[in-house]
Design a protein that fits this description.
mainly alpha; 0% strand; elongated; Major facilitator superfamily (MFS) profile domain-containing protein; transmembrane; carbohydrate:proton symporter activity
C-alpha cells in the first residue's frame, strides 16, 4: 500500500503521526477545559466547594485544593484507562476494547454534564477520558 509516496516503515510512521498528534492535542484541550470553566460564576455557584474567585484566606486555600483535585481527576482516569488497555486489549481484542472505551467515555461525559454535586463531578471526570 502506498500513501503520499510512503511505503513500509515510513508509511507506518506517517500513520502513527496522523493519529498521535490529533489525540495529543485533543487530550490537552480536554485537560485545560476543566480548569477554565471553574472560574465561571454559574459553575462555582453550582459547586461552591471549588469557588476560588469570591473566597479569601483559608477558605480560598482549601477550595483551591479541592478544585485542583477535581480538575486533575481527569488525568487519573486517563492513566487508568491507558493502563487497563494493556490487559483488556489482549483479552477482548482491539475492536471490543475500543467499543468499551467509547461506552465508558460516553457514560463519563453524560455523568459529568449532568453533575449536580461535587462527588459526582469528580467521579465523572475520572471516567470521561478512559481507554
Amino acid at each position: 500500500m502506498t500513501l503520499l509516496g510512503k511505503r513500509g516503515e515510513a508509511l507506518q510512521e506517517l500513520m502513527n503521526f496522523c493519529v498521535v498528534v490529533p489525540v495529543f492535542l485533543a487530550m490537552g484541550f480536554s485537560l485545560s477545559f476543566g480548569g477554565g470553566v471553574t472560574g465561571y460564576k454559574t459553575f462555582y455557584t453550582s459547586f461552591p466547594r471549588i469557588d476560588t474567585t469570591t473566597t479569601k484566606g483559608a477558605v480560598k486555600s482549601h477550595n483551591s485544593l479541592i478544585q485542583g483535585t477535581t480538575v486533575s481527576s481527569l488525568n487519573l482516569g486517563a492513566a487508568m484507562g491507558c493502563l487497563s488497555t494493556m490487559y483488556l486489549g489482549n483479552r477482548l481484542g482491539r475492536r471490543r476494547t475500543v467499543m468499551l472505551g467509547a461506552i465508558v467515555t460516553l457514560v463519563g461525559t453524560v455523568l459529568q454534564c449532568s453533575a449536580f454535586e461535587l462527588p459526582q463531578l469528580i467521579v465523572a471526570r475520572r471516567k470521561s477520558p478512559t481507554i
